Amino acid sequence: AVTYPQLRTLELDFLRTATLFNISRTDFVDRARIMANFLAAIRRGIPSSTRLGLRLPPNRRLLLELGITPSALHGIADYVVAGVDFFGFLASDSEFAWLRAETSLPLYFEVAALVLRGRVGACRGGDEAMGSERLTAEQLTTVALDAFANGADGISAFNFEYFRPLMSEVASPCPTRPYS
Fold it and tell me: Within 10 A of 127 (CB to CB), how many other CB atoms are there?
């Protein structure tokens, strides 16, 4: 067994792919069994004092495709971080309230540092690229208030890079505005 000195929290990210399964070849029961066994094995493999968090989409369809039901997480996960896509960055843009109603686990709403402009446009050099902008202080406040109004226990900050340029500023022809 691997030992992790002072591992306080392990957070598994299930937002990086739409699904881990071939939906046409598996049904929900199979996916749920596989995910329950996987998460239980993770829980058994970490110290009992380590908090296990799951970063999940607040979307019923995507959770079913992942084989996850919020009620099945009790006894396995210690908290859930619900993250939405960059086009709809408010809790009210998603099924966050439904997720809140389905679980009594601590539920945090993910706030991303960037919002996409939602269009492909020409940037310097004439390249086509998806533009993004950093959240303003007003947008961050609005997102937080909306999340709390929809039942969030807290906020999880994602991709906040105050101390260095964003990759888009280094690699993209579309610059982002500085934090305000």
Answer: 11
pLDDT value at position 94?
A: 76
Q: What is the pLDDT of residues 61-104, one digit of tens each?
A: 888 888 888 888 888 999 999 876 554 567 766 788 888 999 99
| pLDDT tens readout for residues 25-59 | 989 999 999 999 999 999 999 988 999 999 988 88
* Measured CA distances, 137 to 98, 140, 153 (Å): 27, 5, 20
Query: How many whole angstroms separate alpha carbon 99 and alpha carbon 103?
Result: 6
The 8-class DSSP code of residue 106 comes to: -
φ and ψ at residue 112, rounded to 5 degrees: -90, 150
CB 19, CB 66: distance < 8 Å = yes
Instruction: Dump strand ranges (E) for the chain.
Output: 9-13, 51-56, 79-82, 107-112, 114-122, 128-134, 154-158
Distance CA 39, CA 44 (A): 9
How far apart, in Å, do the first and last CA atoms of the chain sit?
47
Report how far apart, in Å, the C-alpha atoms of 54 and of each of 64, 84, 90 are.
Answer: 15, 14, 19
